[in-house]
Design goal:
Largest sheet of chain A: 2 strands, antiparallel
Strand order of the largest sheet of chain A: 1-2
Largest interface: A-B, 69 and 80 residues
Number of strands of chain A: 2
Strand content of chain A: under 5%
Shape of chain A: globular
Number of strands of chain B: 4
Number of helices of chain A: 29
Structural class of chain B: mainly alpha
Strand content of chain B: under 5%
Strand order of the largest sheet of chain B: 1-4
Shape of chain B: globular
Distance between the termini of chain B: 22 Å
Oligomer: heterodimer
Helix content of chain B: over 70%
Radius of gyration of chain B: 22 Å
Structural class of chain A: mainly alpha
Helix content of chain A: over 70%
Chain lengths: 620, 490
């Protein structure tokens, strides 16, 4: 296993190499595709866990080659330190579970081969992201997982809503990525290298304002990827993708990449007080606002989507509070219980044929394994001791309270809402009487197996807080008794009140809707964020670009060229009254064109004078 | 000798096809394919034989009159562009596979075009360079004017006159440089021009010719070809009307003559003038990136959309060049090579779609990725390559351009980032509107890409991946030549 640690790049390269073979395998033989797609995650797990268990033996392994040589030699390289090892393990386990689950879930889909090919591509891209030894290679993986996300959200591209959601996801994250790109350019200018080691060594020499700019630009990228306000609007729509994909990409791994990015670039963020305050504020606000939206969703996947945005907000708040190790701990536990909840919802959707919780109810009778494992995941999310989420969320709360009591209160309220909305979802889905008109049934072992494995994670991972902190090289926090008691109380209050309010199931929804209709509708529509994006950006850009094309490009820019040609043509006809014929037409045009352009060029001195003025005005 | 063959083989092919005017479509295309394949063979042997070792490979020259001589050479700057030309030459022939209207003449013109463009990239004499440069126009003019679509005559004429007016200015600039140096070899003109200026500067006598004037005369010709905003409007018209092979060559190779000419001749001739004027190139580049992307976003014609994307990509290469650094020039070369391959793929796919549906109206398409799965897959791939996805060819060059541009222009690059975002928008809009959605009943039963088309797509896709994963395939070749040119040698 030491060999694999020393050559961990193979774990990154292998899924990429298997992308095309997986597709061919899927075309040849149905069962072969998932087998091929499982190889990458298995190797990733092997590399991750062996690195975790050999922690402390020698320096992190790594290697690099010259990728873009030039005046500055840009390298492409990998490294396997504690942080990468933890992410390898998370990505490997979740990806493997999702591949297995998909065998049942995607059964009979005509895009079978394409699906597993894309899963393989995603595994490779995600492991590239976490194993990068430079911010540039991280960015390469970052963009590739974004492309996989685009392709998988739009997997059922004949459905216009799925195709549109894919574009939306890509474009919103691309806005963040543009910021990240600029951050990279700024880093290059200040440090002269993209390598983490070089960057960290140089942080102290960079002026503090510039460090803040770099950190904020990186955070813009992180906010796009991890769906933080106001770049969160793509994630709820991303639920158009197949549910196992939502579990893998839009809950456990890719959306957490923003948290990983900040953890990875920690020395840069640590050096900027301002950046941390921004991260903390955005994180806490997103956690609270998004939790309140999750309260009123009817679509089971939308509840989980807003829950994910909210939980990512918790992680960012922890980062902003200076506790990156705790943020990573929450990332790990959240990966397990949220992937579990998503796969559970996939099992429910597969079994009942709907995503609307109003058409579910009582599913614990027909789907006992799904219901049991779901309860574990829901408990972990709500923060019921001693499930995984309890430990990690307590540490987040504790750290954030220490940094900013206001943010701490926001997160406490968000926790209360969390317990409430997940209890509501649980009650509406699995308890009460069945309200649909189908025959809900449990899926096969390929679907229930992963649920049980992830259930173990949701139960047990909380006890590994110390271990994870140790692997990350962070100081391990012990549980603060006051926070633990308060947060347990919050969780229990949330659960109890939801259980009581929803004692008559959907009736409560209708009653609340009639009583606080306006607030309910506002929350249900995500407080109108989509409408703002639509009216404020998309429509103006589209109609503006069309107007610019019609009124400027065609009539002014091209009109000038064409008009000029026509004028010369007319002039030519007057001058050559004795001659006619088409040859004259462009001869004259040509001559006059040359003359006019020459006239422009004869004022060449003024061109350079103007350039000099502009240069000084632009400040370079 | 092999360099001469690179020009002579396609030229010979053009003559042969010109003589077999009534040849059947099958015979014409096979003959044409054989000639382009042999050009590729010669190029690969040149690389493989070690005759070209990254330095300069000079072919035996022949004097043409007192000053000028037929002199060809290939260095690390020419090589990537020649490679692009010989590969896209084959792609162009395969794109014309179903041309049934006077096929022999069509293929003859394609081969003539390839010969002329190869000549541009190999010429080591400024007069020869100009002759090849103008020779390119003639086959292209007829390809658009005869085999084009509805409004082909107007577009052909516009293409011809617009770029010819530009090159006329370039000719004046070249002649001024030649007369003031008494040299016509590329290196001779460049070093002679510097020497001449030093001589006059030392002697205190006013210069007989302004270097600024010469610089701008040549640059305007090159900028029209790039094309830079606002002298770009010939391009969308030419593309929309051109047959597929014409578009492949136009976007893939012809546009690169502009950037190549800047690096080879325009900038080295008067580096100090260029240094003063860099801001103009930066502005033109930024304008191209943003304006090209906005124009692409607003199109209802799929081919015009792809055409405007060329304006945006070439804007990136102008930004890269405007930095005046080695990294900037490397980036510009990478961008041009990448765009050559990606735009060839996109125009090829648009052509395949047009052949089946006889329309380019985006609104009339829907769900084409379901009706033509292979087409849809490659089109999506091409769009991702075009928007600069890392791992594909567009990324290394445009990334370097952004980093170098930021070093130079600072926060003005925020405007370019707008172009980066819009670049995602127009590419994904194309996939969304044409490929996705419910399958259009109008096109039910349309055939997917055939074996030949899949082969073309596969070749281009593999090149896109190779250039994206291993940009050193170009960088390692181009860097020594570029740094030599930057240092003042030519």
């Amino acid at each position: 296993m030491t060999w694999l640690i020393d050559n961990a790049w193979i774990a990154v390269a292998l899924p990429f190499i298997l992308v095309v073979p997986t597709w061919f395998a899927g075309r040849l033989n149905k069962t072969l595709a998932p087998v091929m797609a499982a190889i990458g995650p298995l190797v990733l797990m092997a590399a991750g866990f062996s690195a975790i268990f050999s922690n402390g033996e020698g320096d992190p392994s790594g290697g690099s080659i010259s990728w873009i040589p030039g005046a500055t030699d840009i390298h492409a390289g990998w490294m396997l330190d504690g942080l990468t090892a933890v992410m390898f393990a998370v990505v490997g386990v979740i990806a493997l579970m999702v591949v297995v689950f998909s065998i049942g879930y995607m059964h009979g889909d005509k895009g079978w081969a394409r699906y597993f090919m894309l899963l393989s591509l995603f595994t490779g891209s995600m492991s590239l992201l976490v194993a990068a030894d430079s911010i540039l290679i991280l960015f390469v993986g970052w963009e590739l997982v974004g492309a996989c996300s685009y392709l998988l959200i739009g997997f059922w591209f004949e459905k216009p809503s799925a195709a549109a959601a894919a574009v939306k996801a890509f474009m919103v994250t691309r806005i963040g990525d543009a910021g990240l790109l600029l951050g990279l350019a700024l880093l290059m200018r200040e440090v002269g290298s993209f390598g983490f080691t070089e960057v960290f060594a140089a942080v102290e020499t960079i002026p503090s304002g510039t460090v803040t700019a770099i950190a904020l630009l990186l955070f813009v990228g992180a906010a796009g990827k991890s769906a933080q306000f106001p770049l969160h609007i793509w994630l709820p729509d991303a639920m158009e993708g197949p549910t196992p994909v939502s579990a893998l990409i839009h809950a456990a791994t890719m959306v957490a990449a923003g948290v990983f990015l900040i953890a990875r670039m920690w020395p840069v963020f640590e050096a900027s007080e301002t950046a941390l305050v921004v991260v903390l504020s955005i994180g806490a606000f997103t956690a609270l606002a998004s939790a309140s939206i999750a309260l009123v969703q009817r679509d089971i996947k939308k509840v989980l989507a807003y829950s994910t945005i909210s939980q990512l907000g918790f992680m960012f708040a922890a980062l902003g509070a200076g506790a990156w190790g705790i943020a990573m701990f929450h990332l790990v536990t959240h990966a397990a219980f949220k992937a579990l909840l998503f796969l559970g919802s996939g099992s429910v959707i597969h079994g009942s044929g709907t995503q609307d919780m109003h058409e579910m109810g009582g599913l614990r009778h027909s789907m006992p394994i799904t219901a049991t494992t779901w309860l574990l995941g829901a408990g972990a999310l709500a923060g019921v001791p001693p499930l995984a989420g309890f430990f990690s969320k307590d540490e987040v709360l504790h750290a954030v309270f220490g940094a900013s009591p206001v943010a701490g209160v926001m997160l406490a309220v968000a926790s209360l809402m969390t317990a409430f909305y997940i209890t509501r979802a649980t009650k509406l889905t699995f308890f009460g009487a069945y309200r649909g008109d189908g025959h809900p049934h449990e899926g096969g072992l390929s679907m229930t197996g992963p649920l049980m494995v992830l259930g173990l994670g949701a139960v047990g991972l909380g006890f590994f807080g110390h271990g994870i902190a140790e692997v990350l090289g962070e100081h391990a926090e012990s549980l603060d008794p006051v926070t633990a008691i308060v947060s347990t109380a919050i969780a229990l209050i949330g659960i109890a009140s939801a259980w009581w309010i929803y004692r008559e199931d959907v009736v409560a929804d209708l009653r609340l809707q009639s009583r606080v209709g306006r607030i309910w509708d506002a929350a249900a529509s995500g407080y109108g964020a989509d409408a703002v994006a639509e009216r404020g950006f998309i429509r103006p850009v589209m109609s503006g670009s069309r107007a610019l094309y019609e009124r400027f490009e065609r009539s002014v820019v091209d009109g000038a060229a064409e008009g000029f040609a026509r004028a010369v043509n007319g002039l030519g006809r007057i001058l050559s009254l004795l001659q006619n014929g088409d040859g004259q037409w462009y001869g004259a045009m040509l001559g006059a064109g040359v003359v006019i352009m020459l006239a422009v060029v004869w004022s060449y001195d003024s061109i350079n004078l103007w350039a000099a003025n502009v240069s000084s005005w632009m400040g370079w | 000798m092999s360099l001469h063959l690179l020009v002579l083989i396609p030229l010979l092919g053009a003559i042969v096809l010109g003589c077999m005017r009534s040849a059947s479509i099958e015979r014409a295309r096979v003959v044409s394919l054989l000639f382009t394949l042999s050009a590729l063979g010669v190029f690969l042997t040149t690389l493989g034989s070690g005759a070209f070792d990254g330095g300069e490979l000079v072919a035996p020259s022949a004097a043409l009159g007192e000053l000028t001589s037929y002199r060809l050479a290939m260095d690390g700057l020419s090589a990537p562009f020649v490679a692009l030309t010989v590969v896209l030459g084959i792609i162009a022939v395969l794109s014309s596979w179903r041309i049934s209207d006077r096929p022999a003449a069509h293929h003859a013109l394609l081969l003539a075009l390839q010969a002329a463009v190869t000549g541009v990239f190999l010429a080591q004499d400024v007069i020869l360079f100009y002759v090849f440069w103008e020779a390119v126009l003639i086959p292209m003019f007829f390809l658009i004017g005869v085999w084009g679509h509805e409004d082909r005559r107007h577009a052909a004429l516009k293409f011809f006159i617009y770029t010819f007016a530009g090159s006329a200015l370039m000719l004046i600039g070249i002649l001024l440089a030649v007369y003031s140096t008494g040299e016509t070899s590329m290196a001779g003109v460049v070093t002679g021009f510097q020497a001449m200026r030093e001589y006059y500067a030392n002697s205190g006598v006013a210069l007989p010719v302004s270097p600024t004037l010469v610089f701008w005369l040549i640059m305007i010709g090159l900028l029209v070809k790039v094309p830079a905003v606002p002298v770009h409007t010939w391009l969308p018209d030419a593309h929309v009307e051109a047959p597929t092979a014409g578009s492949v060559m136009l976007a893939g190779v012809l546009l690169k003559m502009g950037g190549y000419g800047m690096i080879r001749l325009g900038i080295p001739l008067a580096p100090d003038v260029f240094a003063d004027a860099r801001v103009i190139f930066a502005i033109l580049g930024i304008a191209g990136v943003v304006y090209g992307a906005i124009m692409a976003l607003s199109q209802s014609d799929l081919k015009r959309l792809v055409a405007y994307s060329s304006v945006a990509h070439m804007g990136f290469s102008l930004i890269a060049l405007s930095t005046g650094t080695l990294n900037g020039q490397i980036a510009a070369v990478l961008i041009m090579v990448s765009h050559g391959v990606v735009s060839a793929l996109m125009f090829f796919l648009v052509g395949e779609l047009y052949d089946r549906t006889h329309t380019r109206e985006i609104d009339r398409f829907s769900g084409m990725a379901r009706l033509m799965p292979a087409w849809g897959t490659v089109f999506t791939f091409g769009a991702l390559a075009s928007l600069g996805l890392p791992g594909l060819s567009g990324f290394p060059g445009e990334f370097m351009a952004i980093v170098e541009g930021f070093n130079d222009l600072g926060w003005w690059m925020l405007i370019v980032l707008l172009g980066v975002i819009l670049g995602g928008a127009y590419n994904l809009r194309a996939v969304f509107a044409v490929g996705h959605g419910p399958a259009a009943s109008e096109w039910a039963g349309v055939s997917d890409l055939d074996g030949r088309a899949i082969l073309v797509a596969l070749v281009l896709a593999v090149l896109i991946v190779i250039l994206g994963v291993w940009p050193r395939a170009v960088i390692d070749v181009a860097t020594p030549a570029l740094s030599m040119i930057l240092k003042g040698g030519a």
